[in-house]
Amino acid sequence: MSETLGETVSNAINNFVNETFQKSNSSAKVPATPEGKLVAYTALISMAVVPIVIGAYRSVTYLEKQKLTGEKPDTITKDDAMKFPLVASCMLFGIYVFFKLFSQDHINILVSFYFFILGIFAMAHIIGPYVEKLIPASFPNLPYHLHLTEGNEENKSVLLDLDFDRKYVVSIALFGLVSGWYAVKKHWLANNLIGLCFAMNGVELLQLSSIGTGCILLIGLFFYDVFWVFGTNVMVQVAKKFDAPIKLVFPQDFLVEGVFGKNMAMLGLGDIVIPGIFIALLLRFDMSLKRDKNLYFNSGMIAYFTGLLTTIIVMTVFNHAQPALLYLVPACISVPLGVAFYKGDLEAMFSYSDEKSEKTEPEKKEEDTKKSD
Prior knowledge:
Layout: H1 2-24, H2 34-69, E1 75-76, H3 78-101, H4 104-126, H5 128-134, E2 143-150, E3 157-165, H6 166-185, H7 188-205, E4 207-208, H8 211-231, H9 234-241, E5 247-251, H10 254-257, E6 264-268, H11 270-289, H12 295-318, H13 325-343, H14 346-351, H15 354-357, H16 361-372
Parallel strand pairs: 1-4
Antiparallel strand pairs: 2-3, 5-6
């Protein structure tokens, strides 16, 4: 009888321990509450707006630096804009097919390594200078120059020409730890830090050649987004399976699970970067007008916020994934252009390009003289 009682107690303890262990390691999602959704989507909207604002102002500085060095920026032309939806469609469907044919785990190992490297340099470009300022003056800093060439004297070409110092190496090591944290744990905080840096880099460095080019790109991707979300399940499947920091996420169960939440709301980086580079161009146009207020940049940001909010409301009401560009593109194009029409700046807006704004006053006078001749 005593043995039976002992076994009963032992089994009860084992069952309790096993159930507790399974609960603590369970991947089950906590259902999203209205409050949890509000917190998650508010965080996503905030995280979407911040990189556009920062990236847009950084694009102005980037353009000024290129003007001083005499380098011409790589811009997205009209031909690029018209081809982009087709290229993006081929890439998206190609990734989808890869997931169907090959092991998801194997693909994500390769993807993790690729984005591990990209993430380090994306963070170094955005956050690196601030990290280096935190390093004390007593740090034994020394400069380095890395120069790599290919070929003989007659046919020599430069492959790498890089100046850096020990502070830069320290920042790279730090960002390597963050990128490694994401590669191993896939934690949403690490994902968002890298994703935000990707978004800021994109808005800063990807530059449209003109407003017309921006409209072509946005309209083309409008139809791309609508087709791949409503017409097929390809984009949704890829977004869920593609384990890389190409989207911003926030747990809808944050109020219950905190940073360990698993029921994620998400927003693709394309829904930030694509409208963002158009809004950044509006800021540079504002700068060229040399007025007190950045009217068109502000109107573009208001339009973006309104379009993103509309996306979230519709998605919540119908409980179905929505192509964000379906709402963002009409808002981001119509509002700034409508304001320009009202203010009489529509012609100036469509004739503006960064290349024209980069010319110095003597170059402009020389060009005007040639036209008059």
